[in-house]
Amino acid sequence: MHVPGKADYAIRAVAELARRGEPTKCRDVAQAQDIPLKYLVNILSDLRRARIVRSQRGADGGYWLMRSPDKLTLAEVMEAVMGALTTVGGELPGELDYLPGNEVLSQVWVTLDLRIRGVLESVTVADLVSGDLASLR
């Protein structure tokens, strides 16, 4: 599975906001996580549209999580910035149309998507911040 850098950056940014627990400037998140500032601005915009983060302008402004980190999964963060978790040639696994003899391959991709989703939905941002990944065992 290929995890785009954008998804990795988004998860790291959300974890940083969870650690801080207060409105945090974009540049502070970028610096703390070594994420290019211009790229992070776009990522935070995607996360804001997905209602994962809020923002406020001004001296006391910044970004913060809209939900408790223990209610926010890595799957939600990734989908907010990259869309579907699993695609095959740009198509969703359940929407593939194979010729006779290859139909079973669709089941492989659907199963792969369910397993990937299962892992990413079992880990919350709070788990990531605490370092407790017991849910993966």
Short description:
The chain is mostly helical and 137 residues long. It has a single domain (5-131), classed as Orthogonal Bundle (Arc Repressor Mutant, subunit A), CATH 1.10.10.10. The protein has helices at 5-20, 26-33, 37-49, 74-82, 103-122, 125-130; strands at residues 53-56, 62-65.
Tell me what the structure shows.
It is a single chain. This protein is mainly α and about 140 residues long. The protein has a single domain (about 5-130), classed as Arc Repressor Mutant, subunit A, CATH 1.10.10. The chain is about 55% helix and about 5% strand. The chain has a two-stranded antiparallel ribbon. Helix 1 (about 5-20) crosses helix 4 and helix 2 (about 25-35) packs across helix 3 (about 35-50). The longest helix is centred in the C-terminal third of the chain and has 20 residues, at about 105-120. The radius of gyration is 17 Å and the shape is elongated. The model has no long low-confidence stretch (mean pLDDT about 95).
